Amino acid sequence: MSKRIAIAAIGTMGDVQPFVALGRALTKRGHSVVLATTIDFEQFVTSHGLEFQTLGADIQAFMRQSQFDTVMQKNSLLYAPKLLRDGQKILRTATRHLWAIAQDCDAIVFHQTTNFAVDIAEALDIPSIMTAFQPLNPTGEFPYFAYEGSTPEPLFNRISLDPLFNRLSYVIQAAYQSYYDFPRDRMRAKLLGLRSRKRSGFSKNARGEPIPALHAYSPIISPRPGDWPDSTTVTGFWRLDDITGWEPDAAFRKFLDAGDPPIYLGFGSMPWGAQRNTEIITKALKTWGGRAVIGKGWGGIRAEDLPDTVYAIDKAPHTKLFPLMKALVHHGGAGTTYAGLYAGKPTFVVPHFFDQPYWGRRVFELGCGPQPVRLRKLTPGILASALEELSTDVSYQLAAQELSDKLHHEDGTNLAADIVEETIETYPGNYYNTNQMMGAAS
Questions:
Q1: Phi and psi for 209 in degrees, rounded to 5?
Q2: Of 269 and 263, which is predicted with more confidence?
Q3: What percent of the chain has pLDDT over 70?
C-alpha cells in the first residue's frame, strides 16, 4: 500500500544527495515522497522527479560567512557564539516548516541534523527513522568518530582500557547534541504541545527507547560494531546515479587524451581558506610537476595561472569524473570518499572538520592512500609528496581496486527502503494517555 513519507535533511550537497537516492527508490516502489531541505537544493531535488518542500534558509550562504571561515581556519572562538545563534535560528525555522509538511505523512526519515523530527513524529504518532553518514551510536570498539587524540596505555601493561575509553569518548557527541537540544526543547513545548523529554541522543525517542537508525555508509569501509542495538543498521551507501548526461567537453577531452590520467584535487562544498588553499596547491603542483585536474571549489583558482599540465574544471558529477582520474585529493566527506573508493581510486584526504578526519583515517587504514593531513597543517611540501605517492605507489592502486570490487556488490539504497517500509508496517503507535500531553499542538 502506498505511503506518504517525509524526508528531512539540512547540510551540504553530500548530505542531501543520498536522500534523493532514497527518495527515488521509495517513489519507484509506489510511495509518495516529499524531500524537505533548504531552499538552495530545490532545483536539484525536483530535477530528480521528487517533490520539494523548503526547510528555510540557504545553508550554503550560512557556510560561506566570513565568521565560519575564521573559525574553521584558525580555531577561533571569537565568532562562534554568533554562528551558534544563527545555526539554531535555522533549526527553529526548519522545525516549523517540517511540522506543516508532515501533517499528512506516515513516517519521517531524517538526517541527524534535523533530529527535531523525532518530536514531530511523536506529536503526530508516526514512526521516525534516523539517518547518519558516519558511525553515530556509541560503541566500545572504537572512539567517537570526531575524536583525534591518543588512546590510553594498558593498565599494568596488560589490561586494555580501550572499550571503556571508547565509550567515554562519546561525551563529545553529547556536547554536540546539546547544540540541537536548546532549540528542540523550546519548540517541543511551544509548537508541538509536548512535555519535556529525556536527553536521549540522536537515535532514541522521548522515552529513551531506540528508534530505527540507518547508517548510510559501507560496512566494508567501516564495519558495524557488534555491540550496537538491533535497531541500528549499516545499510551501505545510498548511491545516486547521474542523470545530467555529463561528458567531458572538447577542451577537457583534449587534455585527458594528451597524457596519462591526471590526479583530481577538490574540496567539494567546503568554501574556507580559499587564498591559502590556492597558494598551497599552486606551489605543490609546480614542485610535483605531474598532470592534475583541479575542481574550482578550492576557491580563487584561475585557469590562466596554471601550467599546461593542470586543468581547472568548474563542475562535474563524481560518478562520471572520478573514473577518468588516476587518483584523488579531497576533503574526506562521506559521499566523496565513497565515490572515490567505488571508482577504485587511491585517495589522499585533507580533512576540514566533523567526520572528515574519520574517513581519512579509514582510507589510510584500508591501504588506499597516504595518511590524512588536516587542512590547517597542510603545506606545499606535504601535498607534493602525497601527489608523488599517489602516482607511484602500486599498493594504493591495488587496495583501492580490490575495495571497489566489493563495493559494487552492495545495494544500500534498497536495503534502506526495505527498512523504511517495514518500520511503517510494524509501528505500534504511541503509548501516551491524555494527561501526558500538554495540549493540542498548534
A1: -90, 140
A2: 263
A3: 80
